[in-house]
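F.,

This is the one I mentioned.
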């Protein structure tokens, strides 16, 4: 077993305010990512937002565009499984009870599943598990849904939510990150007891380490870029990527302000005082190569100080923002493969659960 188990998890979804199209934001970039992974010989996990597709299905009778997007979504997910990729669950609760007025969906303003009503949480999780299982088991008989990545990272309040994931046989939960604080969504991970290694959560407060149980939390790998790296990133996003990713190009009507401005995570606290004022985590989508390289080099260096092998590192990907940035992503993943061949092994969440979790360190209350 190598020192690190790198799990690329892609949040397979359209934009948070409901804008976008399965073809452009999901099918094409996911196909690019799968081709790239095949080329360099790695596997990864796709976390698919089923709340979105269930809402599309409710409105299927109303538009051929919606019917076509459902078909493309389902075929893309089936293709992921057929090509040997891992498919796991992601849910954006703002899709619950969305209103469709062609060609726009008007979504809710709650982006944190932990804040949804308890009966709505259970119905959504139950329906999502059934839907994905029915879609995938004809292709892969032993398919098991085992991992959940929280939409907008939101898992608070956690008690009911974690009990539900336990009930539906999930094993791994992701979304927490050191010091993440989004007051408008009710998300506050300051005081996270274990910010790096996998741990057993206390269901009452997901930030706390609990007793050995059925669920394990893997925190996102936090990263705080220096000022120069951050400035380069902001320039790239504002100047190079902005026009390429303008959602208005998908509609023949102007986007209503109510749709455009829906943002359940608008007051995310991203800056603090000091030499490293911006705290984020390992992620890739529309960033320049220099930023991606620096982020991974820095986190890898920090993790090297940890004892033991088989330490999982989660790398969050957003294919919805890949367009116009394929070259940087390709160059970056090839860089990891060549530069870190000695220490890094690429695996999926299913691989981790089936082959590594029981042999590697998980922090539980007994260990403290
Ligand atoms: Zn998401």
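My design for it:
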């Amino acid at each position: 077993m190598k020192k690190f188990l790198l799990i690329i998890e892609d949040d397979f979804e359209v934009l948070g305010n409901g804008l976008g199209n399965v073809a452009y934001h999901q099918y094409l970039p996911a196909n690019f990512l799968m081709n790239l992974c095949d080329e360099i010989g790695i596997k990864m996990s796709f976390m698919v937002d089923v709340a979105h597709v269930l809402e599309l299905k409710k409105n299927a009778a109303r538009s051929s565009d919606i019917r076509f997007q459902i078909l493309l979504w389902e075929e893309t997910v089936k293709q992921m499984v057929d090509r040997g990729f891992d498919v796991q669950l992601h849910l954006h609760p703002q899709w619950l009870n969305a209103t469709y007025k062609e060609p726009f969906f008007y979504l809710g303003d709650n982006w944190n599943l932990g804040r949804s009503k308890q009966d709505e949480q259970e119905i959504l999780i139950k329906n999502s598990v059934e839907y994905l299982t029915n879609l995938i088991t004809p292709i892969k008989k032993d398919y098991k849904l085992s991992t959940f990545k929280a939409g907008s990272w939101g898992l608070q309040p956690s008690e009911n939510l974690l009990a539900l994931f336990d009930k539906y046989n999930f094993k791994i939960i992701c979304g927490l990150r050191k010091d993440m604080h989004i007051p408008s969504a009710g998300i506050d991970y300051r005081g996270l007891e274990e910010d790096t290694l996998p741990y057993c959560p206390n269901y009452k407060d997901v930030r706390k380490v609990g007793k050995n149980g059925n669920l394990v939390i893997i925190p996102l790998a936090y990263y705080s870029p220096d000022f120069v790296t951050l400035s380069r990133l902001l320039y790239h996003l504002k100047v190079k990527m902005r026009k390429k990713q303008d959602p208005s190009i998908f509609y023949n009507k102007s986007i209503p302000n109510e749709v455009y401005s829906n943002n359940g995570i608008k007051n995310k606290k991203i800056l603090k005082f000091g030499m490293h004022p911006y705290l984020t985590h390992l992620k890739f989508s529309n960033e320049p190569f220099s930023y991606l390289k620096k982020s991974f080099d820095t986190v890898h260096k920090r993790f090297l100080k940890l004892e033991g092998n088989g330490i999982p590192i989660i790398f969050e990907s957003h294919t919805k923002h890949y367009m116009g940035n394929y070259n940087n992503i390709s160059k970056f993943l090839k860089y990891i493969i060549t530069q870190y061949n000695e220490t890094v092994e690429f695996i999926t969440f299913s691989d981790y659960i089936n082959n590594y979790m029981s042999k590697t360190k998980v922090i539980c209350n007994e260990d403290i």
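Residues 114 and 157 are 5 Å apart (CA to CA).

Talk soon.
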